[in-house]
Amino acid sequence: MPVKPAKQDCHECLDPIAWLLGRWVTEDGHGSYPYTPSFYFHEELEFIYSEDEPLLDFMATAKHSNRSLSLYERGYFHMPNPRRVQLIGTHNNGYTASEAGRYRASIKQIKLKSVTITAKPDVLRPYVLKTRRIFKLLSPNTLEYKRYVQTEITPMTLYVRGIYKKVE
Question: Where in this chain does the record put each THAP4-like heme-binding domain (predicted)?
Answer without folding.
Answer: 14-166
